[in-house]
Write a structure and sequence with these properties.
Order of helices and strands: HEEHHEHHHHHHEHHHHHHEHE
Number of strands: 6
Strand content: 5-15%
Largest sheet: 6 strands, mixed
Strand order of the largest sheet: 4-3-5-2-1-6
Oligomer: single chain
Shape: globular
Helix content: 40-55%
């Protein structure tokens, strides 16, 4: 597996909570359970738009890019979740591996064979496996095996570049790394071992989550996640910490960075669909900040 491909698949796991079947989320019930494309208005500023992506290169997902080109071409600024340029790839790869071969020891003799076998399914060479940091191994196992590239997010970034739009990423790569790397070691290790143990179940969840996204049913994405989590109370506590870091805390940052641009108007922003939903989601936070939110599709 190339460094770039590993980077894209790993940062995709951190960027989209709906692609994380081990995560626990309460099934939401609210005004933002359906819809991927939203119109945002604030005062007299030009209309802005938000789109909830799926970090996938599946052909049916990529087909959803073309109808968005009109919005991107008309935007003053395009705000993707992240721009996966060469510097970002290099920074991510440097952070995801260590100089020591201690991952097997940290996972433990009992669980390492299964973790190693699962990592191999994702194309991670044995020489690299042992040097992966636990968080990097975890996000690797949470990705679809053999996931296609480019992702929808990359296709949209390419369109914005071709249209000559200003591109302003919502996050940088270090912020995405920190969202998971700063979790307690016990949480990362528990979820890593669980993800290896239930790897087949996680992979089986990819198709229904894709179908839910294609239907614009962001509420169902969360319900699928909730059904896939185990019944172990300790594991649920770890999953709660995981989702707090990947969603709630990042949602606040997203809104902090979106709002100044929305006040100027003409924004088209594209980020993981799971960030749209729920009482702490981006749309609810924008509403609280005085924006109007109207579903388009």
């Amino acid at each position: 597996m190339t460094a770039r491909r590993l980077f894209l698949r790993q940062c995709g796991a951190m960027a989209l909570a709906s692609a994380l079947p081990t995560a626990l989320r309460a099934a939401p019930s609210g005004p933002y359970d359906h819809g991927l494309l939203w119109k945002i208005t604030l005062g007299d500023a030009l209309v802005s738009h938000l789109f909830g992506t799926l970090h996938s290169g599946e052909p049916r997902v990529i087909d959803r890019a073309a109808p968005l080109y009109t919005y991107i071409d008309a935007a003053r600024v395009f705000m993707p979740e992240l721009v996966a340029d060469a510097d970002a790839v290099n920074a991510f790869m440097a952070a995801s591996t260590s100089d020591t071969d201690d991952l097997p020891k940290r996972v433990g003799r009992k669980h390492w064979p299964q973790v190693s076998q699962r990592l191999a399914l994702h194309g991670v060479d044995e020489r690299v496996q042992t040097r992966l940091r636990p968080w990097a191994a975890l996000v690797t196992l949470l990705q679809p095996v053999g996931g296609a590239q480019p992702t929808l997010d990359e296709v949209l970034v390419r369109r914005a570049r071709a249209a000559g739009r200003k591109i302003l990423p919502i996050e940088n790569v270090q912020e995405q790394i920190d969202a998971i790397a700063r979790l307690p070691d016990a949480t990362v290790m528990a979820l890593l071992i669980d993800s290896a143990r239930r790897h087949d179940e996680i992979q089986a969840g990819v198709a229904p989550m894709t179908d839910a996204w294609l239907a614009g049913d962001t509420g169902e994405l969360a319900r699928i996640n909730s059904r896939l989590i185990g019944d172990d109370p300790a594991l649920r506590r770890h999953a709660d910490l995981f989702m707090q870091s990947l969603l709630a805390q990042r949602n606040a940052r997203f809104v902090e960075r979106l709002l100044p641009q929305i006040r100027e108007g003409g924004v088209f922003a594209a980020f993981g669909a799971s960030h749209l939903t729920g009482p702490d989601g981006v749309l609810a936070r924008l509403l609280q900040a005085g924006c109007s939110t109207d579903r388009i599709a």
